[in-house]
Amino acid sequence: MSTSTSAALDAGRGPAEHGVRTQIIEAATAHFSHYGYDKTTVSDLAKAIGFSKAYVYKFFSSKQAIGEVICANCLSQIESEVHQALQGVQAPAERLRLLFTVFVEAGLRLFLQDRRLYEIAVAAATDQWPSAQAYEGRIRQLVEDIIKDGRASGAFESTTPLEDTSRAVYQVLLPYLNPVTLPHLAPLHKEAPSALQELVLRSLESRPQ
Amino acid sequence: MSTSTSAALDAGRGPAEHGVRTQIIEAATAHFSHYGYDKTTVSDLAKAIGFSKAYVYKFFSSKQAIGEVICANCLSQIESEVHQALQGVQAPAERLRLLFTVFVEAGLRLFLQDRRLYEIAVAAATDQWPSAQAYEGRIRQLVEDIIKDGRASGAFESTTPLEDTSRAVYQVLLPYLNPVTLPHLAPLHKEAPSALQELVLRSLESRPQ
């Protein structure tokens, strides 16, 4: 347990509760990483921290509720990577390229480096946890915003309906966002890591009528 | 059993042997459909047909070898649907549209109507059985052939390298061919069943330089 966590535990009820939640999340992340999400029960977690099962349930209603927080943390980390990469990049085509590159790379890194935590992402995507649904909604919006900017600047065509075209581009990206589908597509993606985004960009090019 | 099933069976063996193999495949298809591929053992199959396990092993070296034949039959059925749909259709854009439509529809139908046999397809795709690999290779070639024809006729652009562009188009299609990934993409695909192929076709359009 970190010093800040201990300090929070000793403070008033609000911060103390926050501290216990943090402590459970930290322990669960370590436990899930080591034993896997599927094989860990709330009892295992409680035992590992030295809490009673009932006490853990005071803070989280289920194992999924704990997984949700870990999943949301993980997804928001990927999202900040994307936003960081997009910072200062103005050209819509370049922004779309970065969007594809960073999401795919982050997903592959998560898959290859942290298989155990990956299980949580798989559960989240398969059972459509709220955190995963919200994440997908935000990315879909991000794609639409970039295409809208590209249309406004004249870089992208404006003859097709914005909503349809944005959905289609998102649909090309989606298999690389989903942790279940990504591993099945990784070998082909590796053959030519930029092929997909260049195809999408050619489809968006503005052209003389 | 359909004619294509019989045709897919090993040629060059005696008629009696051929008959026993057919009998095992028929029983296995029924058994897998009912109990699932994962839960069925070679012993279960042998018992169901009234053969000894050793006798079944004289014809097939493993459960996977039986699954391979069923899988190959199933895939070749989807392929004949595609070739039938393409018959008489000349325009490369229309051929590509049909390719996407028929493959996705056939995959969804298999998934929705025959969950138990779907398990075999999942095992084949996940463990990259030879039948699945050969199937993917043939589809990749089919995509390249259509794009080549489109370039020759002037319908598609010819400025990008054929191999790269064909791979990229196949990469857009692949998540809808793979039985593991398809169910995760089906809801978005349903929102706009032709979005993906129209995006691909826009990317292929020939345009003035």
UniProtKB/TrEMBL annotation, chains A, B:
InterPro entries: Homeodomain-like_sf, HTH-type_TetR-like_transc_reg, HTH_TetR, Tet_transcr_reg_TetR-rel_C_sf, TetR_C_27. Residues 18-78 form the HTH tetR-type domain. This is TetR/AcrR family transcriptional regulator. Residues 41-60 bind DNA. Gene3D superfamilies: Tetracycline Repressor, domain 2 (1.10.357.10). PROSITE patterns: HTH_TETR_2. Pfam families: TetR_C_27, TetR_N. Keywords: DNA-binding, Transcription, Transcription regulation. GO terms for molecular function: DNA-binding transcription factor activity; transcription cis-regulatory region binding.
